[in-house]
Specification:
Blueprint (H helix, E strand, L loop, with lengths): L1 E6 L12 H8 L4 E6 L12 E2 L9 E2 L1 H14 L5 E12 L2 H7 L4 E6 L4 E2 L1 H6 L3 E4 L9 H12 L32 E2 L2 E2 L9 H19 L1 H10 L2
Parallel strand pairs: 1-2, 1-6, 4-7, 5-6, 5-8
Antiparallel strand pairs: 3-4, 9-10
Helix pairs in contact: 6-7
The chain binds adenine (ADE).
């Protein structure tokens, strides 16, 4: 997979993605990242990319003409490759594991990271750009959101995770959160690991884990439990 980032802060990339699992995958060319500075497409001597909003109001809006030049430049460089374009914004559809699975089917992603109040809607509509939010809170810009989306994609690329089994039984795979995990020592701070986990009885362990998953999901994510229950109908 190739990730093309349109940003005012290209030096932020690859940033945290240079570390741990995603860093190793980057070294091994399992994916690539290229950040483009939107200011290079401004066409003005002061490299301005935004202007005041029609209708008034606070903040500045990123210009459609500037963004379109940047997008077309990246599209032309990647002609013929299965590409999706995404704008990271708190006003977008909320990202979840299902959306990530749809996104990783593309070979090439163009991720637009906004700053300021937003971007000219005509640019998004004209280019059929999908608006994606990573959650109901406001960040200063889309860059950190892009990191989140990219890392969630990278770990689904074949052979990126050391043990492919880690992808099975993950939280959200069937709407349930994961069961709790324990490791040595068996007694820590006078607290014992549940006996069943040390019993060697795989059937009982699986039952216990399922019960704990349901209990945790009910407690912290009743919305997911509803989805789980209706998926079983
Ligand atoms: N930009 C600012 N806040 C954001 C969010 N919650 N998700 C995606 N992009 C953003």
């Amino acid at each position: 997979m190739k990730f093309n980032i349109l940003t005012l802060f290209p030096d932020m990339f690859p940033g945290p993605l240079n570390h741990s699992i995603s860093g190793k995958a980057l070294d091994n060319k399992k994916y690539s990242i290229k950040a483009y500075d939107i200011r290079n497409f401004s066409g003005t001597s002061n490299k301005s990319v935004d202007d005041t909003p029609f209708g008034g109001g606070a903040g500045m809006v990123m210009r459609a003409d500037v963004l379109d030049k940047a997008l077309n430049f990246v599209k032309n460089k990647n002609e013929g490759i299965h590409t999706a374009s995404i704008y990271l914004t708190p006003s977008g559809e909320k990202l979840d594991q299902k959306m990530i699975k749809r996104i990783v089917k593309y070979d090439n992603l163009i991720l637009l990271c906004g700053r300021y109040e937003g971007v000219d809607q005509r640019f998004l509509d004209h280019n059929q750009i999908k608006e994606v939010s990573i959650g109901d809170y406001i960040l200063a810009g889309g860059e950190i959101a892009a990191f989140v989306l990219i890392e969630a994609c990278i770990r689904l690329i074949p052979d990126v995770l050391g043990n492919n089994k880690s992808l099975i039984n993950e939280s959200f795979e069937d709407y349930l959160l994961e069961h709790p995990h324990y490791t040595k020592p068996a007694i820590w701070n006078n607290i014992k690991v549940p006996d069943v986990l040390r019993s060697g009885n795989h059937k009982m362990i699986a039952e216990w884990r399922k019960k704990e998953s349901l209990k945790k999901t009910k407690k912290v994510r009743p919305d997911l439990l509803k989805l789980y229950n209706s998926s079983k109908d």
